[in-house]
Amino acid sequence: MKARTSRPKGLHYTCVAVAALAAIVMRSVSLPVSAQAPANDGPKYAAGTNNLLRPTDYREWVFIGSSLGLNYPAPGAAPGPDQFNNVFVNRSSYQSFMQTGKWPDKTIWVLEFRGVGTEAVQNRQGKFQTGVVGFEANVKDSRFPDGWGYFIFRDGDKSTSPLSGDTVKRCIDCHTAHTAVERTFVQFYPTLLDVAKRMGTVRKDYTDP
Questions:
Q1: Angle at 18 (CA atoms; ends 17, 19), nearest 5 degrees
Q2: Domains, in order of start, for the chain
């Protein structure tokens, strides 16, 4: 009679667990971009209007970068104090841009302006961000005749209407003349600019400074 070889019970369960984990990993790798970020993470508006609701979770979006001193005073106005400009974009639009070099409809950029603090001690002088002093948003949305909407939120605003008249005209003129990709200043964010160059989506009339 042939002896039966016994196999440790623990080995069987370990193999099952490893196989199950591998299946989960394979499914997650094959997920399309649309499944990796919520499709409804774009701009949201007050019911029946074009008034943009102030995003409350924008700090959970993709942080594109920060700049200092790139303020845009109104024509004839004296330059204001330096500010840090922190830029965030909704995650699904960022993922789409990284694959195509283009911003899809329902892209929303948040511009968070913060004051500048300084620290000066021996052999060191530095600057750091302080409180929020301004909050704006740029939206790519086909609901607007021009395809883009520009918004400025005042303190306490839970929603705001799109800029109009001469104010929005200045925004459009500037974003049309000086941006690298569509109407966005991608040139200030090297990672995005590298993607746009690779995908061939940099504007033909744009030249690196």
A1: 90
A2: 38-199 (3.50.70.20)
Burial code (b: 16+ CB inside 10 Å, e: under 16) for 148-187 equals: bbbbbbeeeeeebebbeeeebeebeeebeeebbbbbbbbb
Specify which residues 153 forms β-bridges with: 135
Tokens matching residue 196: 């746009």
Those residues with Cβ within 8 angstroms of residue 163's Cβ, 6 or more apart along the chain or in another chain: 149, 150, 151, 152, 171
Cα–Cα distance for residue pair 86/126, rounded to 1 Å: 18
**Mean pLDDT in residue range 88-100:** 98
Query: Which of 187, 168, 153 has its CA nearest to residue 53?
Result: 153
The token pair that represents 96 in the structure block: 């789409």
The rounded distance, in Å, linking the Cα atoms of 172 and 148 is 9
- Give the predicted TM-score (pTM) of the model: 0.77
- Is the confidence at residue 29, as pLDDT, over 80? no
26 CB burial (10 A radius; 0-12, 13-18, 19+): exposed
Which of 145, 189, 186, 188 minimizes the C-alpha distance to 168?
145
Which of 87, 97, 81, 94 has the alpha carbon at shortest distance from 138?
Answer: 87
